[in-house]
Automatic annotation (TrEMBL):
GO terms for cellular component: histone deacetylase complex. Residues 55-336 form the Histone deacetylase domain. It is an enzyme of class 3 (hydrolase). Its cofactor is Zn(2+). It is found in: Nucleus. One of its GO terms (molecular function) is histone deacetylase activity, hydrolytic mechanism. The keyword Nucleus applies. Keywords: Chromatin regulator, Hydrolase, Nucleus, Repressor, Transcription, Transcription regulation. This is histone deacetylase. InterPro entries: HDAC_classIV, HDACs, His_deacetylse_dom, His_deacetylse_dom_sf, Ureohydrolase_dom_sf. It comes from the Eukaryota. It catalyses: N(6)-acetyl-L-lysyl-[histone] + H2O = L-lysyl-[histone] + acetate. Its EC number is 3.5.1.98.
């Protein structure tokens, strides 16, 4: 007869291996208080034999955001946190071995980043010039969750690869940094209720598939329903979806966001928010096809940070998609505005 005080069943083999990988990872660096919770490395920026120009994504966006902030005196270079690269063991926390092996084929990577000539480049170059910057950004997203819990907020000036799931990349997203940073938070930060606010112009189908029917994760996704990825399977896993039409303008967008955040507040009380803050909602973006003004993006970010601060919920922001050269300036202006409104403290305020 079984004892009534039987110990709980052990975690499945796959789950205990995942925990072991997370606990042995070196990505959770100790960051001194003299640094701001702004995560970036010059290695984020992609310069790839000019092939990066064949995709509308501005692959130097991340560096330009930081240069605006440092040149204009809002942040000192020495106050920026440099993450480590996510290694294979880190990536296996979410990704399958088969998927990671598929990235050793340049043709496969070319289809994920939507630049066909990449298929002709030797894979060692693809790894160094394209996938290494992505792995650095993944390290940044994972570290940002720890920093957000310690400081109340964090910004990874990169990441937000929300089209990538455990077994499939796409839409310029080769690694599932959102899913990875959440799995690390579950184990290392003792988080059990997490909210994803995805305001990129595109549906975040990657994390939606990874957290299908996982009650610990609540997903609010506001996106243009008339553009890529048209992932109807992933849509059923969105807890709260706001589908926009192409051409949606600033006032309507912000009104819908206010309503969505109110509903979200009444439905779910998270311990951590992952905010995917794509700027492809900007008017003129060739892929987002929405008509949001730069001021509208700045207001959007302020609303999300205020939503978090009013409820005392730590928030990490990822910069995600944005396909115009003006995106970097808008993101920098938004970060400056958050500091001016006392929603974050930048390096100049820490000093």
């Amino acid at each position: 007869m079984a004892s009534s005080s039987a110990s709980p069943a052990p975690a499945p083999a796959g789950e205990s291996l995942r925990q072991k990988r997370i606990l042995s990872s070196k990505l959770y660096l100790e960051v001194p208080s003299s640094k701001a919770p702004v995560v970036y490395s010059p290695a984020y920026d992609i310069s790839f034999l000019g092939l990066e120009k064949l995709h509308p994504f501005d692959s130097a966006k991340w560096g330009r955001i930081c240069r605006y902030l440092t040149r204009e005196g809002h942040l000192e270079k020495k106050q920026v946190v440099e993450p480590l690269e996510a290694c294979k063991e880190d990536l296996l926390v979410v990704h399958t071995e088969a998927y990671l092996n598929s990235l050793k084929c340049s043709f496969r990577v070319a289809s994920i980043v939507e630049v066909p000539p990449v298929s002709l480049v030797p894979n060692w170059i693809v790894q160094k010039k394209l996938l290494y910057p992505f792995r650095k950004q993944v390290g940044g997203s994972i570290l940002s969750a720890k920093l957000a819990l310690e400081r109340g907020w964090a910004i990874n000036v990169g990441g937000g690869f929300h089209h990538c799931s455990a077994e499939e990349g796409g839409g310029f997203c080769a690694y599932a940094d959102i899913s990875l940073c959440i799995q690390f938070a579950f184990v290392r930060l003792n988080i059990s209720r997490l909210l994803i606010i995805d305001l990129d112009a595109h549906q975040g189908n990657g994390h939606e598939k990874d957290f299908a029917n996982d009650g610990r994760v609540y997903i609010l996704d506001m996106y243009n329903a008339g553009i890529y990825p048209f992932d109807f399977t992933a849509k059923q896993y969105i807890d709260q979806k706001v589908e926009l039409a192409s051409g949606t303008k600033t006032d309507e967008y912000l009104e819908l966001l206010d309503k969505a955040l109110e509903v979200c507040k009444s439905r779910f009380q998270p311990q951590l928010i992952v905010y995917n803050a794509g700027t492809d909602i900007l008017d003129g973006d060739p892929l987002g096809r929405l008509k949001i003004s730069p001021e509208g993006v700045i207001t959007r970010d302020e609303k999300v940070f205020r939503f978090a601060k009013d409820q005392n919920i730590p928030l990490l922001m990822l910069t995600s998609g944005g396909y115009m050269k003006s995106s970097a300036r808008v993101i920098a202006d938004s970060i400056i505005n958050l500091a001016n409104k006392n929603l974050i403290e930048l390096g100049s305020q820490l000093g």
